[in-house]
Each structure stands twice: as C-alpha cells, then as structure tokens.
Amino acid sequence: MNAAELTLAQELAEVSRLVEDDDVASALQRFLERITRTVPGCDRAAVAVRERRVEFVAAHGPRAGEVTGLPSQDGPIAEALQFREPRYLADTRTDARWPGLGRRLAEAGCRSCLVLPLPRQRTPAAALVLYARQPQCFGDTAQDVALLLALHAGVVFDNAQLFHDSRRLIDQLNAALRTRQLIGQAQGLLMRQLNCDQERGFALLKGASQNTNTKLRDVASALVAAHDNGELPAMITKFGVDDAAP
User: Fold this and answer.
1) Residues whose CB falls within 8 Å of the CB of residue 107, separated by 6 or more in sequence, listed in order
2) SUPFAM superfamilies recorded for this chain (predicted)?
C-alpha cells in the first residue's frame, strides 16, 4: 500500500468514527473538513438535502456561505438529489448547461463543481457538493476518492441519524414516564387531602389545569412541591381544587 492509499484508508476509518459521542451536525462539519483535506484540489465542500426544496445543512471552506447561498432549486445539485446521479461542472465559466449558476460560481471563486449523491436508506435525499478554485480539477482520481468517501459516509450518517433518533425517542419516553409518575403522585395527594376516589382525584387535577390554563404536569409538580414544603392546602386553594371537591 502506497502513501496515498494509506492516507485514504485512514480517512475512511476516521469517517466511521465521526459520529461517536457526537451529534449529526457536528459529524457533518468534521466530515467536510476531512473531505477538503483528502480530495485533491477541493477547497470547499457542502452537504445538501432535499425534502420540499433543496437546502444546505453543512458547509466548510473559504466563502462557503457565499457559494451555498446561490440558488439551488434548478441545477446540478437539484438534479443529483432528484435522479441520484453525479453531476460535474468541469469549468463553471464554459459549462453551457447552467450558465447563470456557472457564472455566479465563477464569481465566487469556484471553477469546478462536483455533486455526488450520498447513498442513504433514510430520507431526505442528500448529496455531497465539492468545489475547487481551478477548472478541470476533479479528474478521475479525485472523483474516485470523493466517491469512496461519499459511499462510506452515506452508511455512517444513516446509522448516526438512527442512533440519535432512537436516543431522542428514549429521552421522550423517559420524560413521559416521569410526568406520568408525577401526575399519579399529585392525584394520590388530592385523594388523601380531599377524601375522594381515584377517578375524582384525576378529574380535579385536570380541572385545575384547564381552569388556570396551566399544563397538567406543572399543576402536578406544584402540588407535589407544596406537599414537600408543608403548603399543600394553600396550593390546593390557589388552583381552586377545593372549590370543586365533593
């Protein structure tokens, strides 16, 4: 294995570790930094997605914001996302397919542009966009390197999104469980304080929430905290619960 091959292998290994203890946005940013270091001639890179419209979710490199601010709804990026096919502008000044966009890219210092769709099992569709200062920059070697990184990254980011979506779902379930336990605790306090059954206790709790335009969990939290501080009767009065008690 020569030095170039070894460097590429090391970069592929690093891409697979980008998402460890990291969020997807940060992983994308670090991935683009590696892209600009590894792909010959590349000095700016971005990731674009398409749901209802084309949007850039990450960018790296000099004047990257200026480039990603250009219209992208009709052009190589939109086509790559729609058809899942690469698009290459070898020279933005002379490419006749998108002359308006090509001219604006050239004015922003980009003479070459390569768009590679990221292979993903999840939505939305995503593409890697590479820019270079020189025309004819992304030849066969550069395209092969970029394609290897894009293929690897598509799987990595699918797994990252799945991991973070799962973790977010677990956090939501834990929060829901804590809220349920809190409401049950407040319900029990009302049952004991107002000498009512379980159904009536929950009805009083719900009524206090509606009458004061306060979230149910916040009413429950206030009642539990008041009980801990020896102020439960006053809090019951504040929420008007005792007025509705049997």
Assistant:
1) none
2) GAF domain-like
